[in-house]
Design a protein that fits this description.
The chain is mainly α. It is built from 9 helices and no strands. The model has no long low-confidence stretch (mean pLDDT 91).
């Protein structure tokens, strides 16, 4: 409700450090909040464990084929636990890295996943500013409450896809743009 009037208030106003402190506070609150509006992040971490620890493909093995564990207990009885992973190999590669860095622990995995997404959010902010040369527009993207919830509170791969597409759009190098778009496609197989 308050987001739309904020758009008109900031449209012609210059931003100062207090605006960014506010954005940081919103993102920090979402970061420390338990991810309770989706179980997707547990599937991401499960895929990392499935590949790195058990050496199985999430495209062949289903979560339902294993007993519930620290990750799958949160989504074991959902309908999509009976389906192969809809996430692409690039995203699963990142989940393997997160699984390794977190030493296969749930809390560290969630923190690293949230940090990865927050980095993606700030990359999107920078790229939107680079493309539009409009700091207010980029700032409104940064403080969008739906984005903050889906990035910092309950992380999803979509912000990484957005960052890769924005990078491809902003780059003048055809090779870098092609690699970036390819990685975006390899992040999530379906939308």
């Amino acid at each position: 409700i308050f987001y739309l009037p904020l758009f008109f208030l900031l449209k012609n106003q210059s931003l100062n450090r207090w605006h960014y402190y506010g954005a940081f506070i919103f993102i920090a609150i979402a970061f420390i909040t338990y991810p309770n509006n989706s179980a997707d992040q547990f599937r991401f971490l499960f895929n990392g464990e499935l590949i790195r620890i058990f050496h199985f493909s999430p495209y062949e093995k289903l979560p339902i084929q294993f007993p519930p564990n620290q990750y799958s207990q949160f989504f074991y009885y959902t309908w999509w636990a009976k389906f192969p992973s809809p996430y692409g190999p690039f995203w699963d590669f990142l989940m393997v890295i997160i699984n390794f860095l977190s030493k296969n622990t749930l809390s560290a995995g969630i923190i690293l996943l949230k940090l990865l997404n927050i980095i993606g959010l700030f990359i999107c902010y920078k790229l939107i500013y680079k493309i539009t040369k409009n700091k207010s527009l980029a700032y409104l993207f940064l403080i969008n409450p739906v984005l903050i919830i889906n990035v910092a509170q309950s992380p999803h791969p979509d912000i990484l896809i957005a960052a890769l597409v924005l990078f491809a759009f902003s780059s003048t190098n055809f090779f870098k743009s092609s690699i970036s778009l390819s990685l975006a496609v390899l992040t999530k197989i379906h939308v």
